[in-house]
Design brief:
The protein has 138 residues and is an alpha+beta fold. The protein is built from two helices and five strands; from the N terminus they run αβββββα. It has one domain.
Length: 138
């Protein structure tokens, strides 16, 4: 029986964090699957490209760009995104996904291998944290 709360130790913390990370990655994969099945993929044309540096204020930083795409009904929409792998050139083409129920809602599509790779890396990190916690007697 435990004498004091300090007898529990800190081994439970990486176990809990690792389990939470695995749960989050599974939820991420479910969202990706739903969007890939229900959202429509189309090609968009890149407009303005710029670099934003808000790192000092805690905001996002990096390259951003505006894009325009046409939905299945022929209506044109605009969006803003950040490239996953390299900065696009003006007037180049990118793949976007949009919600057919609300076509103005869109995102730059990450390749499937990128989404699966990110999930696998997150799950592997979760398993590692669980093993570290269990090795500490958590």
């Amino acid at each position: 029986m435990l004498e004091t709360i300090s007898d529990v130790g800190w081994g439970w913390l990486p176990v809990a964090f690792g389990a939470g990370l695995i749960w989050f990655m599974c939820k991420y994969l479910m969202i990706v699957r739903r969007q890939r099945r229900s959202w429509t993929t189309t090609e968009a044309t890149v407009g303005k490209v710029w670099f934003r540096d808000n790192s000092a204020s805690g905001g996002s930083h990096g390259h951003f760009f505006k894009y325009r795409y046409t939905d299945l009904s022929g209506q044109e929409h605009a969006g803003e995104g950040s490239p996953w792998f390299r900065k696009p050139k003006r007037q180049s083409k990118v793949v976007v996904r949009y919600d057919p129920d609300r076509p103005a809602r869109s995102e730059v599509a990450m390749p499937l291998w990128g989404e699966l790779g990110m999930a696998a890396f997150g799950m592997a990190a979760g398993v590692f944290l669980i093993l570290v916690g269990l090795s500490q007697g958590g």
